[in-house]
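Trying the structure run again after the queue cleared.
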Amino acid sequence: MKGRHAVSWLVVGAMIVAASGCQRPPDLRDSREPNKALVRRWIEDGFNKHSPAVVDTLFAEQVSVNGIAVGREGIKASMGRFFRAFPDLRVTIDEIIAEENKVGMWYTAEGTQQAEYEGIPATSRHVKWSGFDLLSIADGKIAEARFMSDYYALLTQLGASISPPRTP
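Done. Tokens:
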């Protein structure tokens, strides 16, 4: 009998909410899978198929990166620098999570340097580095990005020496 009464009260409560015109707030969990799919498409189509044109579809026009407005052209320019230096660039999503309008992604990138990158002449070295991106989605597009890559690992694999600045 107790279970039957609990169900009755649940039904009565639902009827009161419906009759009062109260609406449930949107369940943002429903956007998690589409948001993850959006980010996966950027990696698969944008990076792994070397198609920066996908940025026009997936990113907001005024997207910002690490707090700086770069726009879609800034994203495409950055991707282009990687494609020129590492023509065999491949990005693997190691883990992806989503909560409300944010998607977090750990990734591993690898490729062979065939052209200048960040002032380092081509080395023909195969390199591998990792990073984490935190992306905010608004209106079905990536509106803000925070990128953290292990550039130290990348640059040292390319033979760059990193030393602290000299003090006067």
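The first strand starts at residue 59 and ends at 65. Worth checking whether this holds up in the mutant runs.
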